[in-house]
Design a protein that fits this description.
about 300 residues, alpha/beta, seven-stranded mixed beta sheet, 9 helices, 14 strands, globular, binds zinc ion
Length: about 300
Protein backbone atom coordinates (compact mmCIF):
# COMPACT_ATOMS: atom_id res chain seq x y z
CA UNK A 1 0.00 0.00 0.00
CA UNK A 2 1.33 3.46 -0.90
CA UNK A 3 1.23 5.67 2.15
CA UNK A 4 1.23 9.45 2.18
CA UNK A 5 4.86 9.34 3.37
CA UNK A 6 5.87 7.11 0.46
CA UNK A 7 4.07 9.42 -2.02
CA UNK A 8 6.01 12.35 -0.61
CA UNK A 9 9.29 10.44 -0.97
CA UNK A 10 8.49 9.45 -4.59
CA UNK A 11 7.63 13.10 -5.37
CA UNK A 12 10.85 14.29 -3.70
CA UNK A 13 13.14 11.88 -5.58
CA UNK A 14 11.43 12.37 -8.97
CA UNK A 15 11.77 16.15 -8.48
CA UNK A 16 15.49 15.65 -7.78
CA UNK A 17 15.81 13.61 -10.99
CA UNK A 18 14.03 16.33 -12.98
CA UNK A 19 16.30 18.96 -11.45
CA UNK A 20 19.38 16.97 -12.41
CA UNK A 21 18.31 16.74 -16.09
CA UNK A 22 18.60 20.06 -17.88
CA UNK A 23 15.99 20.96 -20.45
CA UNK A 24 17.87 21.29 -23.76
CA UNK A 25 16.49 22.48 -27.11
CA UNK A 26 18.17 23.11 -30.44
CA UNK A 27 16.63 25.95 -32.43
CA UNK A 28 17.46 26.75 -36.02
CA UNK A 29 17.85 30.48 -36.64
CA UNK A 30 18.96 30.21 -40.24
CA UNK A 31 18.44 27.09 -42.35
CA UNK A 32 19.76 28.60 -45.58
CA UNK A 33 23.12 29.24 -47.21
CA UNK A 34 24.58 32.38 -48.79
CA UNK A 35 21.97 32.76 -51.56
CA UNK A 36 19.36 35.44 -51.88
CA UNK A 37 16.00 34.03 -52.98
CA UNK A 38 15.81 30.97 -50.71
CA UNK A 39 13.65 32.96 -48.25
CA UNK A 40 15.79 31.65 -45.40
CA UNK A 41 18.26 33.26 -43.06
CA UNK A 42 21.85 32.12 -43.54
CA UNK A 43 23.43 29.68 -41.10
CA UNK A 44 22.68 30.12 -37.39
CA UNK A 45 21.64 27.94 -34.43
CA UNK A 46 20.81 28.39 -30.79
CA UNK A 47 21.04 25.98 -27.90
CA UNK A 48 18.49 26.71 -25.20
CA UNK A 49 19.29 25.32 -21.76
CA UNK A 50 16.53 25.52 -19.16
CA UNK A 51 14.82 28.25 -21.18
CA UNK A 52 17.93 30.40 -21.66
CA UNK A 53 19.60 31.10 -25.01
CA UNK A 54 23.10 30.07 -23.90
CA UNK A 55 25.02 29.05 -27.02
CA UNK A 56 25.04 30.50 -30.51
CA UNK A 57 26.50 28.58 -33.43
CA UNK A 58 27.21 30.74 -36.50
CA UNK A 59 25.37 33.98 -37.19
CA UNK A 60 24.94 34.63 -40.92
CA UNK A 61 22.75 37.23 -42.64
CA UNK A 62 19.18 37.24 -41.30
CA UNK A 63 20.02 35.27 -38.15
CA UNK A 64 19.87 38.48 -36.10
CA UNK A 65 16.20 39.00 -36.98
CA UNK A 66 15.44 35.34 -36.20
CA UNK A 67 17.27 35.75 -32.87
CA UNK A 68 14.81 38.53 -32.00
CA UNK A 69 11.78 36.66 -33.31
CA UNK A 70 12.41 33.59 -31.15
CA UNK A 71 12.88 35.70 -28.04
CA UNK A 72 16.58 34.94 -27.53
CA UNK A 73 18.50 37.27 -25.21
CA UNK A 74 22.11 38.34 -25.64
CA UNK A 75 22.26 38.66 -21.83
CA UNK A 76 21.93 34.87 -21.62
CA UNK A 77 24.65 34.03 -24.16
CA UNK A 78 27.86 32.42 -22.86
CA UNK A 79 29.54 31.38 -26.07
CA UNK A 80 29.50 31.94 -29.83
CA UNK A 81 30.92 29.12 -31.96
CA UNK A 82 31.90 29.99 -35.52
CA UNK A 83 32.31 27.01 -37.82
CA UNK A 84 34.24 29.24 -40.26
CA UNK A 85 34.37 32.87 -41.29
CA UNK A 86 32.43 32.91 -44.57
CA UNK A 87 29.80 35.68 -44.84
CA UNK A 88 26.85 33.29 -44.56
CA UNK A 89 28.12 32.21 -41.12
CA UNK A 90 29.22 35.52 -39.62
CA UNK A 91 27.59 38.56 -41.29
CA UNK A 92 25.18 39.49 -38.46
CA UNK A 93 27.75 39.55 -35.64
CA UNK A 94 28.11 43.37 -35.65
CA UNK A 95 24.30 43.73 -35.36
CA UNK A 96 24.28 41.38 -32.37
CA UNK A 97 27.09 43.22 -30.62
CA UNK A 98 25.52 46.64 -31.17
CA UNK A 99 22.16 45.41 -29.88
CA UNK A 100 23.79 44.45 -26.57
CA UNK A 101 24.12 48.16 -25.73
CA UNK A 102 20.37 48.33 -25.15
CA UNK A 103 20.34 45.35 -22.79
CA UNK A 104 21.89 44.52 -19.44
CA UNK A 105 24.38 42.09 -21.09
CA UNK A 106 27.66 42.08 -19.18
CA UNK A 107 30.76 40.00 -18.53
CA UNK A 108 32.70 37.98 -21.08
CA UNK A 109 31.14 36.65 -24.28
CA UNK A 110 33.51 34.03 -25.69
CA UNK A 111 33.74 33.63 -29.44
CA UNK A 112 35.56 30.62 -30.92
CA UNK A 113 36.54 30.06 -34.53
CA UNK A 114 39.36 28.82 -36.73
CA UNK A 115 42.92 30.04 -36.97
CA UNK A 116 44.08 31.78 -40.18
CA UNK A 117 45.52 30.55 -43.44
CA UNK A 118 46.44 32.33 -46.70
CA UNK A 119 42.77 32.90 -47.59
CA UNK A 120 41.16 33.74 -44.27
CA UNK A 121 42.12 35.72 -41.16
CA UNK A 122 42.22 34.12 -37.73
CA UNK A 123 39.09 34.57 -35.60
CA UNK A 124 40.91 36.97 -33.25
CA UNK A 125 42.09 39.03 -36.22
CA UNK A 126 38.60 38.91 -37.79
CA UNK A 127 37.10 40.33 -34.57
CA UNK A 128 39.90 42.91 -34.42
CA UNK A 129 39.25 43.99 -38.04
CA UNK A 130 35.56 44.42 -37.24
CA UNK A 131 35.70 46.22 -33.91
CA UNK A 132 39.19 47.45 -32.97
CA UNK A 133 38.92 51.07 -31.77
CA UNK A 134 41.81 52.24 -33.97
CA UNK A 135 41.24 50.58 -37.30
CA UNK A 136 38.15 48.38 -37.06
CA UNK A 137 35.34 48.71 -39.62
CA UNK A 138 32.99 49.47 -36.70
CA UNK A 139 35.64 51.05 -34.49
CA UNK A 140 32.95 52.82 -32.46
CA UNK A 141 32.20 49.40 -30.92
CA UNK A 142 35.84 49.02 -29.81
CA UNK A 143 34.88 49.41 -26.16
CA UNK A 144 33.67 45.78 -26.34
CA UNK A 145 37.30 44.71 -26.82
CA UNK A 146 39.28 47.11 -24.62
CA UNK A 147 37.67 46.43 -21.25
CA UNK A 148 35.53 49.59 -21.05
CA UNK A 149 32.06 48.31 -22.08
CA UNK A 150 30.01 46.09 -19.75
CA UNK A 151 30.03 43.27 -22.33
CA UNK A 152 33.46 42.12 -23.50
CA UNK A 153 34.07 39.96 -26.57
CA UNK A 154 36.79 37.37 -25.94
CA UNK A 155 37.93 35.80 -29.22
CA UNK A 156 39.79 32.48 -29.36
CA UNK A 157 41.53 30.81 -32.31
CA UNK A 158 41.29 27.07 -32.88
CA UNK A 159 44.21 25.48 -34.71
CA UNK A 160 43.56 24.76 -38.40
CA UNK A 161 44.45 21.10 -37.92
CA UNK A 162 42.80 20.84 -34.55
CA UNK A 163 42.58 17.40 -33.03
CA UNK A 164 39.36 16.74 -31.15
CA UNK A 165 39.48 18.58 -27.83
CA UNK A 166 37.38 20.27 -25.17
CA UNK A 167 37.51 24.03 -25.77
CA UNK A 168 35.01 25.25 -23.16
CA UNK A 169 33.65 23.96 -19.89
CA UNK A 170 31.22 25.43 -17.41
CA UNK A 171 29.27 23.29 -14.97
CA UNK A 172 27.67 20.43 -16.91
CA UNK A 173 28.22 22.23 -20.23
CA UNK A 174 31.25 21.21 -22.25
CA UNK A 175 32.08 21.97 -25.87
CA UNK A 176 34.36 19.90 -28.07
CA UNK A 177 35.79 20.96 -31.42
CA UNK A 178 37.70 19.39 -34.30
CA UNK A 179 38.90 20.50 -37.75
CA UNK A 180 36.84 19.52 -40.77
CA UNK A 181 37.57 19.82 -44.49
CA UNK A 182 35.84 22.74 -46.26
CA UNK A 183 38.05 23.01 -49.34
CA UNK A 184 40.84 25.50 -48.61
CA UNK A 185 38.89 27.27 -45.84
CA UNK A 186 39.80 26.57 -42.18
CA UNK A 187 36.66 25.06 -40.65
CA UNK A 188 35.60 23.55 -37.33
CA UNK A 189 32.84 21.16 -36.24
CA UNK A 190 31.50 21.46 -32.68
CA UNK A 191 29.83 19.13 -30.22
CA UNK A 192 27.89 20.75 -27.40
CA UNK A 193 27.37 18.44 -24.39
CA UNK A 194 24.96 19.36 -21.63
CA UNK A 195 25.01 16.60 -19.04
CA UNK A 196 24.34 13.43 -21.03
CA UNK A 197 22.62 15.30 -23.91
CA UNK A 198 24.43 16.56 -26.97
CA UNK A 199 24.08 18.33 -30.31
CA UNK A 200 26.83 18.17 -32.93
CA UNK A 201 27.25 20.67 -35.77
CA UNK A 202 29.05 19.77 -39.01
CA UNK A 203 29.32 23.32 -40.33
CA UNK A 204 30.27 23.40 -44.00
CA UNK A 205 32.55 20.47 -44.86
CA UNK A 206 32.94 17.60 -47.32
CA UNK A 207 33.93 14.80 -44.94
CA UNK A 208 37.50 14.29 -46.21
CA UNK A 209 39.15 14.49 -42.77
CA UNK A 210 36.86 11.78 -41.33
CA UNK A 211 36.77 13.59 -37.98
CA UNK A 212 33.05 14.31 -37.63
CA UNK A 213 31.96 10.69 -37.22
CA UNK A 214 34.12 10.46 -34.09
CA UNK A 215 33.20 13.90 -32.70
CA UNK A 216 29.51 13.14 -33.18
CA UNK A 217 29.63 9.57 -31.87
CA UNK A 218 26.26 8.72 -30.31
CA UNK A 219 25.22 12.37 -30.30
CA UNK A 220 21.48 12.99 -29.87
CA UNK A 221 21.18 15.37 -32.82
CA UNK A 222 23.64 15.73 -35.68
CA UNK A 223 23.11 18.95 -37.66
CA UNK A 224 24.36 18.37 -41.21
CA UNK A 225 24.78 20.90 -44.00
CA UNK A 226 23.12 19.95 -47.26
CA UNK A 227 24.63 22.55 -49.58
CA UNK A 228 24.96 20.28 -52.63
CA UNK A 229 22.80 17.61 -54.29
CA UNK A 230 23.59 13.97 -55.09
CA UNK A 231 25.43 14.65 -58.34
CA UNK A 232 27.77 17.37 -57.05
CA UNK A 233 31.29 17.22 -58.46
CA UNK A 234 34.41 19.39 -58.73
CA UNK A 235 34.72 22.44 -56.48
CA UNK A 236 31.24 21.95 -54.94
CA UNK A 237 32.14 18.39 -53.81
CA UNK A 238 35.49 19.59 -52.44
CA UNK A 239 33.64 22.10 -50.25
CA UNK A 240 30.48 20.21 -49.25
CA UNK A 241 29.12 16.77 -48.32
CA UNK A 242 26.92 14.98 -50.82
CA UNK A 243 23.80 13.37 -49.29
CA UNK A 244 25.53 9.97 -49.53
CA UNK A 245 28.37 11.22 -47.32
CA UNK A 246 25.85 12.75 -44.88
CA UNK A 247 24.34 9.27 -44.48
CA UNK A 248 27.72 7.54 -44.13
CA UNK A 249 28.83 9.92 -41.38
CA UNK A 250 25.48 9.75 -39.54
CA UNK A 251 25.61 5.96 -39.62
CA UNK A 252 29.23 5.74 -38.42
CA UNK A 253 28.46 8.26 -35.68
CA UNK A 254 25.34 6.29 -34.65
CA UNK A 255 23.60 9.67 -34.38
CA UNK A 256 20.18 9.64 -32.70
CA UNK A 257 18.73 11.86 -35.41
CA UNK A 258 19.90 14.10 -38.23
CA UNK A 259 18.77 17.65 -38.91
CA UNK A 260 19.42 18.71 -42.50
CA UNK A 261 20.19 22.41 -42.81
CA UNK A 262 22.13 24.98 -44.91
CA UNK A 263 19.56 24.21 -47.57
CA UNK A 264 20.12 25.90 -50.89
CA UNK A 265 18.18 26.41 -54.11
CA UNK A 266 20.15 23.54 -55.65
CA UNK A 267 19.01 21.13 -52.88
CA UNK A 268 15.55 22.51 -52.02
CA UNK A 269 12.84 20.40 -53.65
CA UNK A 270 15.21 17.43 -53.90
CA UNK A 271 14.43 16.09 -50.42
CA UNK A 272 13.17 12.75 -51.81
CA UNK A 273 16.42 12.14 -53.68
CA UNK A 274 18.46 13.38 -50.71
CA UNK A 275 16.56 11.07 -48.36
CA UNK A 276 17.17 8.04 -50.61
CA UNK A 277 20.89 8.78 -50.63
CA UNK A 278 21.08 9.24 -46.84
CA UNK A 279 18.98 6.08 -46.32
CA UNK A 280 21.58 3.98 -48.18
CA UNK A 281 23.50 4.07 -44.91
CA UNK A 282 21.50 5.71 -42.13
CA UNK A 283 18.26 4.43 -40.64
CA UNK A 284 17.59 7.02 -37.93
CA UNK A 285 15.24 10.01 -37.99
CA UNK A 286 15.90 12.68 -40.62
CA UNK A 287 14.40 16.16 -40.34
CA UNK A 288 14.66 19.01 -42.84
CA UNK A 289 15.19 22.30 -41.03
CA UNK A 290 13.31 25.51 -41.58
CA UNK A 291 14.06 28.81 -39.84
CA UNK A 292 12.92 28.85 -36.20
CA UNK A 293 12.30 25.07 -36.04
CA UNK A 294 12.88 23.66 -32.56
CA UNK A 295 14.17 20.21 -31.64
CA UNK A 296 14.01 19.04 -28.06
CA UNK A 297 17.13 17.07 -27.12
CA UNK A 298 16.15 13.89 -25.27
ZN1 LIG B 1 27.96 28.18 -45.77
Amino acid sequence: MITFKKTLLIFFFSSLLLMAKPDVTLQVLGSGGPESGDKRASSGYLIWIDGKSRILIDFGGGASLRFEEVGARIEDLDVILLTHLHVDHTADLPALLKSSFFTSASGDLHIFGPYKNDLMPSTTNFVHRLFDDNDGAWQYLGDHLDGSARLQLKAHDLHKSLKEKVIYKQGDLSIKAVSVHHGPIPAIAYRVNIGDKSVTFSGDMNGDYHTLEKLGYKTNILVMHNAVPKKAKGVAAKLHMTPLIIGEIAQKAKAGSVVISHRMIRTLGKEKETNCEIRRNYEGEIDYANDKDKYKVN
